[in-house]
Design a protein that fits this description.
three-stranded antiparallel beta sheet; alpha+beta
């Protein structure tokens, strides 16, 4: 598999618009349990998806132990199809709703491309663990654990 065709599942299957508000999601396909979090009016997965597919997904560094820790890496085509029932990849509009909920200024929300670095908003979503380097960013203020 060409590594350039893989995307990270960070924030993968992040938004659920029809789910009941809970603190977990049980994927009925394989029984795996994922933490969820309500941010504003939205429900997001607070863990990366680790659903095994026949093709189009791998573990980071091809190490199965990395799938348990970090979730799987998926091609874009597979990523668009692999979310649990009732879940989907978020649209930019849905990301903007999340960004408003965590305090991003409107002028930055309306930017095209990368957002979240100007006012350290991205740090509010950043996990406290599993980073190769540390920085002075705020970490995981809301429990998103990215």
């Amino acid at each position: 598999m060409n590594p350039r065709s893989i995307i990270l599942p960070l924030f993968f299957c992040s938004l659920c618009t029809f789910a009941q508000i809970t603190d977990k999601l049980v994927d009925i396909r394989d029984g795996q349990v994922y933490k969820t979090i309500q941010i504003g009016s939205q429900i997001w997965m607070a863990e990366n998806l680790n659903f095994t597919t026949d093709t189009g997904s791998i573990c980071y560094d091809n190490q199965p132990s990395n799938c348990k820790t970090f979730g799987r890496l998926y091609t874009w085509e597979v990523a668009r199809q692999v979310c649990p029932q009732g879940w989907h990849l978020p649209s930019d509009n849905e990301w903007q709703m999340l960004e408003r909920s965590i305090g991003m200024p409107e002028n930055e929300i309306n930017m095209i491309g990368f957002r979240g670095g100007i006012n350290i908003i991205a740090g509010k979503l950043k996990s406290k663990t599993d980073w190769k380097s540390s920085s002075n960013l705020v970490y995981d203020d809301i429990g998103f654990n990215a």
